[in-house]
Structure formats: structure tokens, C-alpha cells
Design goal:
Layout: H1 2-18, E1 22-25, E2 31-32, E3 37-43, E4 51-57, E5 65-72, E6 79-84, E7 90-98, E8 103-105, E9 110-112, E10 130-134, E11 137-141, E12 148-154, E13 160-164, E14 170-172, E15 180-187, E16 192-198
Parallel strand pairs: 2-9
Antiparallel strand pairs: 1-3, 3-6, 4-5, 4-7, 7-8, 7-9, 10-11, 11-14, 12-13, 12-15, 15-16
Length: 199
Amino acid sequence: MIKKVLFAACLASVFSINAQVTVTFPNGGETLPSGIPAFITWDDSQTSAPTSDIYLSLNGGANWTLVSAGESNLGIGFSLYSWSVPSTTSTSALIKVDDGVGADQSDAVFTIGGGLPNSVQSINGVASVKAFFANNELNISNIEKASFNNLKVYDVTGNLVFKSDAYSNAYSVNDFKSGIYLIQIADKNNNIVTKKIVK
């Protein structure tokens, strides 16, 4: 019996040492609407592996589905993957990141449920739509006023931090902290284009 306990303790110790990446979002307790843009983030400061694979479980870790393979470990203390939350529901979802040496998963389950009213699609001429930060303003160009419906801004955790139904070339965002944001621009036909930008 003592040998079994010691063996289990050794296995736990080895797994802890090998877990050189650490999931930071979603890490448990969050509720993410289906279809929302979000970032999966992980701490990569302890790994020398160049890439990691990302997995999703909808049943508390009983089964895992590959989300994306070969995502870069940026080597700057954190890495991220731009993710569209799947159109499903679960109250026991987990994310796992595996760098090939060890793996880490969400500390607790999170919820996937609800959804956005419109699916994420492409606006005609999507390549020409531009969004960028300058002088504490969010600038939008190359979409006609007659086609514009609304603009939404999500932070790195998938929270909606700004929304406007009024067309403008520049929106005041003085309270935005430095970081990465997802910008969604919808047209009158409820088509949506998503842009990732850095402030």
C-alpha cells in the first residue's frame, strides 16, 4: 500500500514538472456565449517548446477534441489563440494546452451557452475594411455609412467592452487599456467581419 502511495506521488510530481504551460483563460467559472469571439490564453514562460496544441472538452475531461495544432508559444510570458466559441452548450467545458512535454488544463469547468443572434460571416470586400487605434480613438474605414449597422469591441477575455449603432470614422476609447481587442463590424444584412487589433 505504501509503495502504491509513493508511486502515485512520484507520478504527480513528474506531471507537475512537465506541465510547462499553464492555461490562463478560460480557467474555470466563466460563461461564454456560443459563437462569441474569444482568446484562449496560456502562460508559456516555463517552456522551450516552439508550439502547443489546444484541446476542448465538453464533458469535464472525459473526451477531448483538437481545437488547433501547432500554435506558437510566443516566449514572452503569454501566448494566445483567437477562438470562435463553438455553437453548442456545456456546463462542464475545459481547455487543455499541450506543448509536447507536458499539458495543463482549466483549473475548473466553464460554461458554453446562449449565443449571438447572427452568425459570423464575411462582409463583401472584407479585405478592404480597416480598423486601428490612433490618438485614443478607434478608427474605421472602407465601409459605407449606408451599409453600416453596428460595431462591437471585445477584450481578450471575450467580454463586450464597447458597442455603437451609430456610424462614425472614429470612436472615442479613452478608457481602453493597452492590449489586444477583437472588433466586429456588422452590415445591414447582419453579416459580420471580425478584426484583431492592438492598442
